[in-house]
């Protein structure tokens, strides 16, 4: 019996020595592997700064010593026959350390993604930085909640009741702050879909202005009058948004009328004159058409259509002014008159007798009587 007891003690000591050796070798190998990986990644970054290398560097640097020690301890314990109770507690400890380490890896990867997104949005869309902060916060909360639930589940807790309680509580909170959450998700939708960015000139319903700020709850416009217009993000997305900053070219259509007394030859000449005026108004103009469109109530109506190859409103107005002056100049040079609303009043019987009570004659107010009777006798226009 004494020999067997000594043999058991020797065997146990041997197993402990073997477990200690495996632990030491495993921990040393893991530390060397981490240092080597970090050095190689830094060398590769100096040669080629690929995007995925940033993720790998953060994963290596965020690997905790406690995790490496836990892996080494687990490797060494494979040589020992421990009681079931001790193995169970060791398993719990390892699960906790592994889940926390996985959460740290995910948190670092998320940080790298947010940093790279910040840099890309800083110049093109500064408002996107605010939304990325919200997205990052939400993703981090979800990451650590999932990690906590996994730890509790592996420790033997019944998380079904906990998840149900969180669900009921979440519904209650969501109902209480549904307006705020609606604006929050609308701001995230604006950040992801990008219907507009800061600096764009937009029209929303009856409001128009330049986007100055896109926040978590509201969007702020600077109107043409100078005042600031603050619109809820939820209400903003319910309206149809017209973004003039993204207009590649502007279609311009306008009309003018000339007098009915204009000769037919002059009427035929007008579309060609307008075409030459529009084509000569600048390189940013593309002529489309000019037509004698219709017989108006008091004018021969013409319609002109051209395209501005820029979204700049001031340049458009400069070109339109140049075209208007050109049309005015050319029509006057050719003796073509613009139409004005006119009315012809025939008062032949009144002009002959001078009696306002003659049957069939119309009685007009003094201010509408117009020129002298001798002018009306000849059918002159007023």
UniProtKB/TrEMBL annotation:
Pfam families according to UniProt: MS_channel_1st, MS_channel_2nd, MS_channel_3rd
The keyword Metal-binding is annotated on this UniProt entry: no
What the entry lists under Gene3D superfamilies is as follows: 1.10.287.1260, 2.30.30.60, 3.30.70.100
Pinpoint the Mechanosensitive ion channel transmembrane helices 2/3 domain residues: 138-178
Task: Name the domain of life this protein comes from.
Answer: Bacteria
Q: Where, subcellularly, is it found?
A: Cell membrane
- Mechanosensitive ion channel MscS domain residues are 179-246
The UniProt record lists the Mechanosensitive ion channel MscS C-terminal domain at 252-338
User: What are the protein's UniProt keywords?
Assistant: Cell membrane, Membrane, Transmembrane, Transmembrane helix
* InterPro entries, A to Z: LSM_dom_sf, MS_channel_1st, MS_channel_C, MscS_beta-dom_sf, MscS_channel_2nd, MscS_channel_C_sf, MscS_channel_TM-2
Its membrane topology, per UniProt? Multi-pass membrane protein
Q: Where is this region: Disordered?
A: 361-382
* Signal peptide span: none
Where is the chain membrane-spanning? 61-82, 89-110, 130-152, 159-177
Q: Which SUPFAM superfamilies match?
A: Mechanosensitive channel protein MscS (YggB), C-terminal domain (SSF82689), Mechanosensitive channel protein MscS (YggB), transmembrane region (SSF82861), Sm-like ribonucleoproteins (SSF50182)
Tell me which family the UniProt entry assigns to this protein.
Belongs to the MscS (TC 1.A.23) family.
User: What's the name of the protein?
Assistant: Mechanosensitive ion channel family protein
Provenance organism: Noviherbaspirillum album
What lineage is this protein's organism placed in?
A: Bacteria, Pseudomonadati, Pseudomonadota, Betaproteobacteria, Burkholderiales
């Amino acid at each position: 019996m004494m020999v067997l007891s000594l043999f058991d003690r020797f065997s146990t000591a041997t197993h402990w020595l073997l477990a200690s050796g495996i632990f030491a070798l495993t921990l040393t190998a893991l530390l060397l592997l981490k240092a080597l990986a970090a050095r190689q990644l830094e060398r590769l970054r100096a040669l080629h700064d690929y995007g995925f290398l940033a993720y790998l560097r953060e994963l290596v640097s965020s690997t905790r010593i406690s995790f490496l020690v836990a892996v080494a301890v687990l490797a060494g314990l494979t040589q020992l026959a421990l009681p079931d109770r001790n193995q169970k507690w060791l398993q719990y400890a390892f699960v906790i350390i592994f889940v926390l380490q996985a959460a740290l890896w995910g948190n670092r990867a998320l940080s790298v993604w947010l940093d790279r997104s910040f840099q890309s949005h800083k110049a093109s869309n500064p408002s996107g930085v605010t939304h990325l902060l919200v997205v990052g916060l939400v993703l981090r909360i979800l990451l650590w909640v999932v990690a906590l639930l996994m730890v509790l589940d592996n420790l033997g807790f019944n998380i079904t009741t906990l998840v149900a309680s969180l669900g009921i509580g979440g519904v209650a909170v969501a109902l209480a702050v549904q307006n705020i959450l609606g604006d929050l998700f609308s701001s995230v939708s604006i950040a992801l879909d990008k219907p507009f960015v800061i600096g764009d000139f937009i029209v929303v319903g009856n409001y128009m202005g330049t986007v100055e700020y896109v926040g978590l709850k509201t969007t702020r416009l600077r109107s043409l009058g100078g005042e600031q217009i603050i619109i809820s993000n939820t209400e903003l997305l319910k309206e149809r948004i017209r973004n003039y900053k993204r207009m590649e070219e502007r279609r311009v259509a306008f009309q003018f009328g000339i007098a009915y007394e204009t000769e037919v030859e002059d009427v035929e000449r007008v579309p060609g004159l307008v075409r030459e005026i529009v084509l000569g108004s600048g390189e940013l103009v593309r002529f489309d058409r000019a037509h004698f469109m219709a017989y108006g109530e008091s004018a021969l109506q013409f319609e002109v259509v051209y395209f501005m190859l820029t979204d700049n409103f001031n340049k458009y107005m400069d070109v339109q002014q140049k075209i208007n002056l050109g049309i005015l100049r050319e029509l006057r040079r050719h003796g073509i008159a613009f139409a004005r609303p006119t009315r012809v009043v025939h008062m032949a019987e009144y002009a002959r007798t001078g009696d306002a009570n003659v049957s069939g004659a119309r009685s007009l107010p003094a201010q509408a009587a117009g020129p002298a009777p001798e002018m009306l006798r000849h059918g002159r226009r007023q």
